[in-house]
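Hello,

I think I submitted the fe (iii) ion job twice by accident. Can you confirm which output corresponds to this input? Input:
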Amino acid sequence: PVILAIESSCDDTSASVCVDGKVLSNVIANQSIHEAYGGVVPELASRVHQQNIVPAVQQAFAKAKVSKNDVDAVAFTRGPGLLGSLLVGVSFAKAFALAKNVPIIEVNHMQAHVLAHFIGDNKPSFPFLCLTVSGGHTQIVLVKDYFDMEVVGQTLDDAAGEALDKTSKILGLPYPGGPLIDRNARLGNREAYYFPEPQIPGFDFSFSGLKTSILYFIRDNVAQNPKFTEENINDICASVEYRIATILLNKLKKAALHYGVKDIALAGGVSANTGLRLGTKEMCEQMGWNCFIPEMQYCTDNAGMIAIAGYYKYLKGEFADQGVAPLARMPI
Ligand code: ATP
Ligand code: FE
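Support: Only one job matched these inputs. Its output is below.
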């Protein structure tokens, strides 16, 4: 089948065309408008989605060299995400499907982050554990089948991406800070500064304490030396990134041992992080586990992952009806 997929849950507008389970295009239009505000402004996001969606879809067809008339189904992100942003993608998907008289397929954004692993040739086998780390979520997911997933651990407060973005704000770096922390960290010493690891039971996480300790650490040092942050930016970024990666990997390891799972996967925007990718590979090598990390373009929000999720739903004949509405919250 030919599937057109739309992703618009946050601030990226993305369209993808997938033919028989092969993702042929994955066009992503970023919104730079939010940089000036230090975070995503929902009202602005939905307006920019409206401007971007038609060109993104046109490009997705052009890149895939597929005609709009050959589409068999339209997949879209139903949730979770920003309601106004989701509404643009959901409405577009419905209208396109009505015009072409084809069915629509609703996709859960967090399931899609996990299913991004089925885009390439190197696929994990069930059951596997997926650490999904993004701007809004931090979850350890036990993946039993394409659409049979159980969250076995999650954050009790901030997401890992949020911790990175808030840290970068404290450091005076522009939004989104994750990629900048990554870049600076490559030039720094990860053992330069020590931040404590929270003691949380089970496979759950907490990042709000870490954020506070970073805030106080910077405040106290800047009081002594106003140039502290800029003089030590690389070491600070490396130390923060290292602590966040170790918090994540220690829990992932604990869960893998508990469930006896040997296929380990990363997903979500923060899985683009160099330190976390390297740390995961190292842990898997040590433990004799198979490590699965998506290509960069399929880590952050993208329609390719919506397309592959849509493909597996198409095979099961699971279609939505035209009355479907987006959901800001949507369990996996
Ligand atoms: P969700 O998927 O939970 O709804 P989202 O869609 O906002 O949230 P993603 O696009 O999956 O999240 O991920 C965005 C997050 O990834 C941001 O917090 C960003 O800072 C972080 N991020 C992106 N690249 C990197 C990187 N190289 N290193 C660290 N963090 C990164
Ligand atoms: Fe996401």
